[in-house]
Amino acid sequence: MSESHDPGVPGPGVDVPLFVQHVEEILDQALRELAAQPSILVALDFDGVLAPLVDDPAESRIVPAAVEALARLDALPGVHVALISGREATSLVSLAEVPVGTRIVGSHGAQRGHVGLSPNQLPELVTEPLALTDEQAALRAETLRETTDLAARYEGAWVETKPASVVVHSRQCTPEDAAALTDAVLAGPATRPGLRVQEGKSVVELAVVHATKGDAVAELRADVAPQAVLFAGDDVTDEDAFAVLEPQDVGIKVGGGTTAAGYRVADPEEMAAVLLRLLELREAV
After folding, report:
1. Domain termination residue (choose one: 173, 207, 241)
2. Which InterPro entries does this entry report, sorted A to Z (predicted)?
3. Which residue segment(s) compose the domain that 275 sits in?
């Protein structure tokens, strides 16, 4: 792109609706083609894609412009919205501020459900049951014991429990301690047979159910039967999803790092701009 052309999306701190027209030209063309399809699936990771990464996952908040964009996209005919996250699905629904009916895939694909309403008219997860075998439950319990012992040696480290996995978090550790803890986990409990090990940004997840975000995209595609899929992710675990995208799909990497995605934006603010641009294009169809 020459200097006379639109330089792309401005950085953080700029009001998203004001720069929705600044989506990079090559990505804008892909969004035009996506918006013209009769039926589309918009599948998104949460942390680092819709919400900036923070030290305490409970403090994560979705970018306001993304809330608006997803609500309006979901209301349009032929648009299906899904979240595919490493988070436990119930906590994801409590934070995400997405429309009722949004399909939810948590724990990197191990949990399935959708957003419903409680008797108090608050969003809640309507979940599909996840049952572990006795062997899987025992493996998860032993993995939790070992990882908890390791995390206790490093200030700032903690272990999260999910229905089918345990996750060692090191974002609040010093870089040296984070590296040492990760090495210890990979050399110790991660070597147990039957575990699927996934490294992410300052996390190592040890799962007893072998599911990936690629599996989740494939299953959502089969369920929804869209003509095209948009998937956006920021972490190495999202590469499984990018790998199963088809030529008519749009894969967007949020942030830095090597990726199989065809397009890239810098941060959740820019991703919100992309969603608003898709909304604009879809409303014109």
Report:
1. 207
2. HAD-like_sf, HAD_sf, OTSB-like, Trehalose_PPase
3. 16-130+211-283
> Does 197 share its domain with 215?
no
Determine, yes or no, domain membership for 4.
no
Give the C-alpha separation, 201 to 259, whole Å: 14
* pLDDT at residue number 109: 81
The last residue of a domain, from among 207, 239, 255 = 207
The predicted model scores a pTM of 0.80
Same domain, 110 and 38: yes
Is residue 11 predicted with pLDDT exceeding 50? Answer: no
